[in-house]
Amino acid sequence: MTTLASGTDTLTRDALTVLQPGFPGTTAPDWLLRRLGEGLASVGLFGRNIASPGQLAALTARLRAERDDVLVAIDEEGGDVTRLEVRTGSSFPGNHALGAVDDVALTLEVAAELGRRLAACGVNLNWAPSADVNSNAANPVIGVRSFGADPALVARHTAAYVTGLQSAGVAACTKHFPGHGDTAVDSHHALPRIDADPAVLAERELTPFRAAIAAGTRAVMSAHILVPALDPAHPATLSPRILTGLLRDELGYDGLIVTDGMEMQAVAATYGIERGSVLAIAAGADAICVGGGLADDETVCRLRDALVTAVRTGELPEERLADAARRVQALARWTATGACAEQPAGAAVHADIGLIAARRALRLTGDEVFTPLTDPPYVAALTPVANIAVGDETPWGMAAELNRLLPGTETGSFAGPDAGHATLVAAGGRRIVAVVRDEHRHPWMTAALDTVLAARPDTVVVEMGVPQAPPRGALHIATHGAARVCGRAAAEVVAGR
Q: Where are the strands (E) in 84-170, listed by range?
């Protein structure tokens, strides 16, 4: 049963209600349970909080024992960005693979199964899907997290994903509004800027968000990006023009607006998280996401106090904070009713739907003359630095899956100007399978493949990022993602299974 400490005043409760903090460890700390009793209404989960489905279910049950209507949020996109399977790699191939297949019924099925697994663990808000149109091939943070570069394709799959996820009773949080696809900067590190005119933005960036709103997305996440055509002074998360004028008034969206992580440098380095949180709520945001990097009681108290002080000094209207808190509570009621958990027509649930999708997403070049391997090869992973959203603890590649089919397979990871030569030395006489990720963004990777293919033209090349570079090798496999199931699907082709 929901309990609120009697000594907590309404203003303080509202300030706690709009926060979505994280915490360390796989059990709920005492301070978090105490804040739930005082009015905190949401908790964000990350890979560090998850050891197994059973442990996660026990954790969410403990949170609900303190507050039965708590929103438990997670950043579970499937594909490269996974928290449920952070240490093994995802059972789902991710957006870019789904976009490559371009079967909206498949996307709906994948999202419904992912939602079912989240709901079974007690998670009821997913910070997904990404509705970003990946129009900039140099984008360092979106890439395979996007359904693709075509706005219409992204729109129809975003809508299908929202429908599927919410059919399981898990609220979708479509991101990153108004669109993070045409950027060459990662907002975890600095403030990206999109210099496109309003007509382009309306046709490209906003099309998928219109589709998400029409599909009934229960939440939208703002982006920490500067879009001068919409607001030359403020990043979207802090912009009344963008969150209230565009998203609310023009697009007619009436659900929850969640910020991207406030500790990300695009906001934190310029405004600080306290000032940034006040400005975000004033601009029209309803929930402050914080906890990916900052995950302690001190952060919660700092943000709570900053919001309370802003109201008391007149900087933040009390009714705006109260409205934000009401929207959080409204979403909590939606997740608790169970009325949303109705399977749409044709949405049969298959536990292995992720692998089915990964197999369908493969694009092969040279397969008509390729002879599958029978001896264990050497798998050379040409490994770029992972972006923060993906993280570096989630395994990627296909060596483990290929070793399962061809026992004795060996592997190594290579990067930098000597990667090609080092690969040849390490492989010895074994057949080489070179696994790359976004070759088009990494000149050292292209040079390494040049070196390897010049010496060993029978090398198999597996591209697990966005396949922009020309396909080459004795066999080229584009998986459209680096999830575990993508590696398995590619390994089946290499081994002829």
A: 125-126
Structure tokens at 156: 């129809």
Profile the chain (497 residues) by mean pLDDT over runs of 10 residues: 53 98 96 97 95 96 96 95 93 97 98 97 97 89 93 98 98 96 73 90 97 98 94 95 98 97 85 95 97 88 97 97 98 79 50 95 96 97 75 84 97 95 97 96 96 98 96 98 97 96
Beta strands in 81-205 (DSSP E): 125-126, 171-177
- Report the Cα 492 to chain-centroid distance in Å: 27
| Angle, in degrees to the nearest 10, between helices 353-361 and 104-120 | 140
Secondary structure of residue 463 in the 3-state scheme: strand
In whole angstroms, how far apart are CA 321 and each of 15, 162, 280, 314, 378? 7, 27, 11, 12, 58
For 361-387, give one letter per residue: b (16+ CB within 10 A) or e.
bbeebeeeebeebeebbbbbbbbbeeb
71-74 and 42-45 strand pairing:
parallel
Please identify which residue in the block is written with the tokens 């040409």: 382
Cis peptide before 129 (omega within 30 of 0): yes
Other beta carbons within 10 Å of 331: 25
Bridging pattern class, strands 288-289 and 42-45: unpaired
Q: Which two tokens stand for residue 140?
A: 């360092």
Q: Which DSSP helix (H) or strand (E) runs through 43?
A: strand 42-45
- Enumerate the active-site residues: 188, 260
Q: How far apart are CA 321 and CA 73, in angstroms?
A: 21
In the beta sheet, which residues pair with residue 78? 81
Q: Is 313 exposed, middle or buried (0-12, 13-18, 19+ CB in 10 A)?
A: exposed
pTM assigned to the model: 0.93
- Tally Cβ neighbours within 10 Å of residue 42: 26
Q: Are 49 and 15 in contact (CB under 8 A)?
A: no
Give the containing element (helix H, strand E) for 54.
Answer: helix 53-66
Left, alpha or beta for 421 (phi > 0: left; psi -120 to 50: alpha)? alpha
d(CA 415, CA 382): 6
Please give the structure tokens belonging to residue 250: 């023009």
> HSE of 492 in the Cβ direction (CA atoms, 13 Å)?
14
Cα dihedral sign for 320, 326, 329, 334? negative
What is the CA angle 213-45-186, rounded to 5?
A: 65
CB 431 within 8 A of CB 378: yes
Question: How many Cα atoms are found within 13 Å in the side-chain-facing hemisphere of 356?
Answer: 12
